[in-house]
Amino acid sequence: MQFEYKTLQQKLPTKGWLSQSLAQQPLESLLNEQGRQGWELVQLDIPRHQGVWGKAEVTAILKRRKA
């Protein structure tokens, strides 16, 4: 069985200025769309510090079985 992999990077807003929690809706929508295409989430990298401008770049690693 062989797999193919891909990475996605998504900038997500935080829930408030200097907040440590991310808005979940954009990420859920992105992952649900990838799931409909047969991709499975393997790992999600969320940076510890989002910065003062309220954006964080999340990296998702996905895999699916090769056809």
Descriptive notes:
- The protein has 67 residues and is α+β, with helices and mostly antiparallel strands.
- It has one domain.
- Helices cover 18% and strands 42% of the residues.
- A 3-stranded antiparallel sheet has the order 1-3-2, covered by helices on one side.
Summarize the structure.
With about 70 residues, this protein is an alpha+beta fold. It contains one helix and three strands; from the N terminus they run E-H-E-E. The protein has one domain.
Distinctive features:
alpha+beta; three-stranded antiparallel sheet; 1 helix; 18% helix; 42% strand; elongated; DUF4177 domain-containing protein
Mean pLDDT: 81
Are there runs of 5+ residues with pLDDT below 50, and where? none
Which outline best applies?
elongated
Instruction: Output the structural class.
Output: alpha+beta
> In the residues, how many domains can be counted?
1
Biggest sheet details: 3 strands, antiparallel
In percent, how helical is the residue content? 10-25%
Protein name: DUF4177 domain-containing protein
Pfam families: DUF4177
InterPro entries: YjzH-like (IPR025234)
Organism: Bowmanella dokdonensis
Please describe the topology of this protein.
Elements lengths: L2 E11 L11 H12 L3 E6 L9 E11 L2
Antiparallel strand pairs: 1-3, 2-3
Protein name: DUF4177 domain-containing protein
InterPro entries: YjzH-like
Pfam families: DUF4177
